[in-house]
Design brief:
carboxylic ester hydrolase activity, 9 strands, AB_hydrolase_fold, Rossmann fold, alpha/beta, hydrolase, globular, Acetylxylan esterase, 404 residues, 19% strand
Length: 404
């Protein structure tokens, strides 16, 4: 089992020196925003692109938009709901993905949470009007998902992760996309968005080209392209949210696309918010073995070799500055290394301070269920690897303070 291989003993965390986000690779100290934006930020972004997540090998714009369903009386009259299909075409390739959008009826141009869901848009609510995706999905027989197909049996099974009414009542929209429609979550680079960019007889991305996380991030950017055209949405206030592997995705989307107003990483762990050099819980070697398609092939150079990394995940968070970022952990989720997630937020803070923003000032993790709410925010809650009402309550409160 994965857990048996993991280190959960703080005394066995190797000694390491974290790179300073405000010192360039050639040793120059960064003293102001201009130097950060002209020198340090570009070299960090380039390193993460080439060695972690991979380059997007071209540009592809939305070919067409189809409004396939709409209601002014969703959520018992509280919300305007629409289901929008974004279509992409290139050569002989076509790809469609559906965005489910709920908007508060009492807000003219709503700020909005944009996110992926794991099992199809129909799972976030019992609403019978939500279209069931026909895309590939990993089997979950307990939810009626067999032969890699979603069925009516899974409608509403993730309601507990998505308090849609609470979000709408707080004055926010929510837009969700089934991530498997953008790129199926399997080690097969011949489907999803990847083949659109292959040349000649290419069947795999090059070693420095995008894995699935970068592909999913790309899909969020195209969703934002659409939202910028939607008169009901304030596209300058779109908060990108993700849990677990999709928390990694949200961080990378926020780092690479500065149009996102804020970023939320929920239990994102290794390759997300957690420091790699701690080798606590899931490690680079483990994630590359279990999910070889998530990152670019160059990331495998750092399997069991974290000590040679000239960066760490606090610098990924720093790439989001000066926009607000929230890192959240769960007490029982040791696989994702809550302490490593906290330390990333802490050690990213100096970059936010360059901009006059407040981050994490205390060196010790806060007690459970006592969030630190600033431009860089953090909480650890009781419970396991999941998304809970408690998490959303903090995210909404934080968004009220720093985005709305």
């Amino acid at each position: 089992m994965a857990q048996a291989e993991a280190n959960y003993d703080e005394s066995k965390v190797p000694e390491f020196k974290l790179p300073d986000p405000l010192v360039t690779f050639n040793g120059k100290k960064i003293k102001n925003v201009k130097q950060w934006e002209k020198k340090r930020r570009p070299e960090l972004l380039h390193f993460f692109t080439e060695n972690f997540y991979g380059e997007v090998p071209g540009e592809l714009k939305i070919d067409d938009v189809h409004l396939i369903e709409e209601s002014e009386n969703a959520l018992n009259g509280k919300a305007h709901r629409k289901q929008v299909v974004l279509s992409f075409k290139k050569d002989n390739h076509t790809l469609d993905y559906t965005m489910l959008i709920y908007l508060p009826k009492n807000v003219e141009k709503a700020p909005l949470f944009l996110a992926y869901d794991f099992l199809g848009n129909h799972t976030i609510t019992k609403d019978p009007e939500i279209v069931i995706s026909e895309a590939w999905v990993a089997d979950k027989p307990s939810l009626g998902i067999i032969n890699n197909q979603l069925t009516e049996q899974s409608r509403g099974v993730r309601c507990d992760r998505w308090p849609v009414e609470k979000i709408v009542e707080a004055g926010y929209g929510l837009a969700v996309i089934y991530y498997g429609e953008v790129d199926p979550d399997k080690n097969d680079m011949t489907d999803g968005i990847h083949p659109f960019f292959y040349v000649d007889d290419q069947e795999q991305p090059a070693n420095n080209e995008w894995g699935a996380i970068a592909a999913w991030s790309w899909g969020l950017g195209r969703a934002l392209d659409y939202l910028e055209t939607d008169a009901d949405v304030d596209a300058s206030k779109v908060i990108v949210f993700g849990h677990s592997r999709l928390g990694k995705t949200a961080l990378w989307a926020g780092a690479t696309d500065q149009r996102f107003a804020a970023v939320i990483s929920n239990n994102s762990g290794c390759g997300g918010a957690a420091l790699s050099k701690r080798r606590f819980g899931e490690t680079i070697a483990r994630i590359n073995r279990s999910f070889p398609h998530w990152f670019c092939n160059n990331f495998k150079n750092y399997s069991n070799n974290e000590q040679t990394l000239p960066v760490d995940q606090h610098e990924l968070i720093a790439l989001i500055a000066p926009r607000p970022v929230y890192v959240a952990s769960a007490e029982e989720d040791r696989w994702a290394d809550p302490k490593g997630e906290f330390l990333s937020a802490l050690y990213a803070t100096p970059v936010f301070e360059l901009y006059g923003k407040k981050g994490i000032s205390q060196q010790e993790m806060p007690p459970v269920n006592q969030p630190l709410l600033n431009t860089v925010s953090y909480h650890i809650r009781t419970g396991e690897h999941n998304v809970k009402d408690y998490d959303w309550e903090q995210y909404i409160r934080w968004a009220d303070m720093f985005v709305k």
